[in-house]
Amino acid sequence: MAFIQAVLDGLMIGGVYAVISIGLTLVFGVMGIVNFAQAEFLMLGMFVAYFAWAYLGLDPLIGSILSFIVIFCIGLVQRTLIQRVMKAPPVAQIFLTIGLLIVIENLALLAFGSSFRSVSTSYQTSSLRIGPLFVSVPYLAAFCMAVLSGFALWLFTDRSWYGQAMRATAQNPLAARLMGIDVERMQQIAFGLGVGLTAFGGAIVLPYFTVNPTVGSQFVVLMFTAVVLGGLGNVVGAVIGGLAVGVIQSLSALLFPIQLQNLVLFLVFIGVLALRPTGLVGSSR
Amino acid sequence: MKYWPYLLAALAVAVLLPLWLAPSGYLIRVLTLALLFAALGQAWNIVGGLANQISLGHAAFFGLGAYTSTLLLINFGLSPWIGMLAAAGIGALAAFVLSFPTMRLSGHYFALATLAFSEVLRVLASSWGSVTGGPAGLSVPFSPDSLLMLQFKSTRPYYYIILAALLFVTAIFVAIRRSALGYRLRAVKESISAAEVIGVDTARVKVIASVISAALTAALGVIYAQLTYFFDPDSVFGIISISIRIALITILGGVGTAIGPIIGSFLIVPLEELANLLLSSRAAGLSQLFFGILLIAIILVQPRGVLVLIRNIVTRARRRKPS
Question: Which end of chain A is more exposed for a tag (fewer CB within 10 A), N or C?
Answer without folding.
Answer: N
